[in-house]
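User: Look at the shape:
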Amino acid sequence: MELNSSYGNHTTAESPDPSTKHPPHIATDSKPKYVLHSEKDTYDFTAQRCIEKPTKYTVDLVICLDLFGACCVYQIIIAKTIQQVVHTDAELEDLSYLRLYVLSLLVPILLLCMIRTLKYLAPFTLIADVFIVTCVVATIVYSQQTAPKISEVPAWKDVIGFFEFCGIVTFSMEGVGVSLPIENNMKNPKQFPMVLFAGMTVVVSFLILVGFFGYWGFGEKSISPVTLNFPSEM
């Protein structure tokens, strides 16, 4: 009788309850499971998932300041480049022209920022890539026209120069803010590490080429952007 009772209790414990949808002996968790590569895979959501909820707003604030500042710098770089093409050397020091070009860029940049789907930005990215490659090649060519002997170029700078270098490198890598959006828009997100490795290899290679040849050819008198160091009669 005890055996029958024990067996009955055992079978009752293991028999699935028709009112439940879960198999027996499988613990259910009322908390939602986080799924990778979902629409919530953003930097703020990742920070909240890993640490605490207040970090979500901190990450949003830091990314906003970082990308907003970087976009402001890029807008000034574009305006300086346009000013160099349009105006003479004597007018390059006039900031009033620079402010006008920055203001004129406001509308097209705002229109581009309204495009939230990355695939629609792909054509603009391809055009930008062509200009980037052209700029890298031009930097190498024009720097060699005025480059001194490599032995005459100082290999190291002072402590202040080191921190300036750190700031330039940090600014050059600010594209990290779009890493997760790219992964979320990929058809196969599992290939993202390979895509990231290939992309960063190209980016770092271009930065090394421009930095090395730009400093070798134009030296301490080099100004930003590097295109302003090119001869004006080109």
